[in-house]
Design a protein that fits this description.
By secondary structure, the protein is mostly beta strands. The chain contains 2 helices and 6 strands; from the N terminus they run H-E-E-E-E-E-E-H.
């Protein structure tokens, strides 16, 4: 008989927090929107930027892809011209896709508008917060 395989626990409290939010309580909405992300590179004292293509989103998280393989487990989504930031933790990586949880639940109005965007570049430049349901957030 072989010994049971130990369960790998995440090493960072943000990832642990995101995993604790595992029960899906929100509907995922399909979309095809680009967002900027910012993160600190390990061992380097500078901030790096990249883009994610969001494939679906809910109030609690999203599924996205990126051309960059070095996206860390923790990053911030930057909406508009650095107008709104969403703390994120990657809970799994599968076939090039990132399964991401938000550290704070996002407003339903914002998520509905996000998912309905026809222009994939709409969130890369300055936004009008009231159009996105973020007037009380920004």
């Amino acid at each position: 008989m072989s010994a049971p395989t130990p369960i790998k626990t995440p090493g960072n409290y943000l990832t642990k927090f995101a995993l604790e939010q595992e029960n899906r309580k929100w509907e995922r909405r399909k979309c095809a929107v680009l967002v900027n992300i910012i993160f600190a590179l390990k061992g380097i004292r500078r901030i790096s930027k990249a883009q994610l293509r969001v494939l679906n989103i809910s109030e609690g998280g999203l599924l996205a892809t990126s051309r960059r393989p070095d996206i860390p487990d923790h990053f911030y989504i930057s909406i508009g011209d650095d107008q709104y930031h969403i703390g994120c933790a990657v809970v799994s990586r599968e076939n090039g896709a990132l399964h991401v949880r938000f550290l704070r639940e996002q407003p339903t109005v914002f998520i509905n508008v996000f998912a309905s965007l026809l222009d994939p570049f709409a969130l890369l430049e300055e936004i009008r917060p009231a159009l996105y349901g973020l007037e009380n957030e920004v």
